[in-house]
Design goal:
It contains 5 helices and 11 strands; from the N terminus they run ββββββαββαβββααα. By secondary structure, the protein is α+β, with helices and mostly antiparallel strands.
Length: 278
């Protein structure tokens, strides 16, 4: 099993359970090294002090906060440890909110929460209660030198933890929202039909990063001495003049490509908001 990123106690009223957190998702991509074109040697980055005019070792480096221009206060690791809040080892549930009320824009990083042996029973109880009530728990914990407000939600019989963006971290974009335009009922109807024509079951395993796949193919082709084939670019579409005509044409094309398996789909369940994070 992968190493845990946090361990401590989750408290729920007078109930306390030992738990561990494990990273729930991590991006992966092809990385390139910086090379000297002339001899293909790998470039090394060095830490340089302009005052001493020399390269310094990592052991000589300290963390400093700039409180005035070019003036710093040095903060040592042991000093940071002294001021860690109690949430460094204890995650306290503050309140419960309806899952449907939480906008996904507030979700940041995802973690699996697993109970230690002594916490299995209260963990199972909390998970079941959240599943049946359709609530998520809001708690606080400290890790990576930061205190996080987090969501706890049931997922596949266990609990997922999501760190939360604070209100001041969620960006607002001027002009965002429903445009002030009048839509015809017929246009909305065809738009619904177009959505149904493209509707499918949620199967995350079928989605891939095409650019990363192309990069892998490019590297393999170069290793084999082959010729790199340029990917066909999509044609630039002209601005829509007749919205209804464009909708109908799109629908006709989608229905032509529609697979028999997706022709009949059960009605979507109402109530809980589907979550795509996990």
């Amino acid at each position: 099993m992968a190493a845990s990123v946090w361990s401590g106690y989750l408290t729920f009223g007078l109930i306390s359970m030992p738990v561990r957190l494990f990273s729930g998702a991590r991006s992966s991509s092809i990385s390139f090294h910086m090379l000297h074109r002339d001899d293909m040697s790998r470039i090394k980055q060095q830490l340089y002090c302009p005052n001493d005019n020399r390269v310094v070792e990592r052991s000589e480096i300290v963390k400093g906060y700039e409180f005035r221009k070019d003036e710093y206060v040095v903060v040592e690791p042991e000093e940071i440890k002294k001021i860690e809040p109690r949430t460094a080892k204890t995650m306290e549930i503050l309140e419960f909110v309806k899952e449907s009320d939480v906008d996904p824009v507030y979700f940041e990083s995802s973690y699996y929460m697993l109970p230690e042996e002594a916490g299995r029973r209260p963990y199972a109880l909390l998970t079941k209660a959240l599943e049946e009530s359709e609530y998520v728990a809001i708690a606080k914990l400290t890790m990576h030198n930061r205190e996080y407000t987090v969501f706890l939600r049931p997922h596949e019989g266990g609990l997922m933890l999501h760190t939360m963006y604070y209100e001041e971290e969620v960006r607002k974009v001027e002009g965002f929202g429903a445009p002030e335009v009048e839509l015809k009922d017929a246009e909305v109807k065809v738009a619904h039909q177009l959505i149904e024509a493209l509707a499918a079951d949620w199967e995350p395993e079928k989605y891939h990063d095409t650019f990363q796949d192309n990069l892998k193919n490019l590297i393999q082709t170069k290793l084999e001495g082959g010729k790199i084939q340029e990917v066909e670019k999509p044609k630039k579409l002209a601005p829509v003049v007749d919205l209804m005509a464009a909708l109908k044409q799109s629908l006709a094309e989608m229905e032509g490509k529609k697979k028999p398996a997706t022709a009949a789909r059960p009605a979507a369940a109402s109530g809980r908001r589907a979550r795509s994070r996990g």
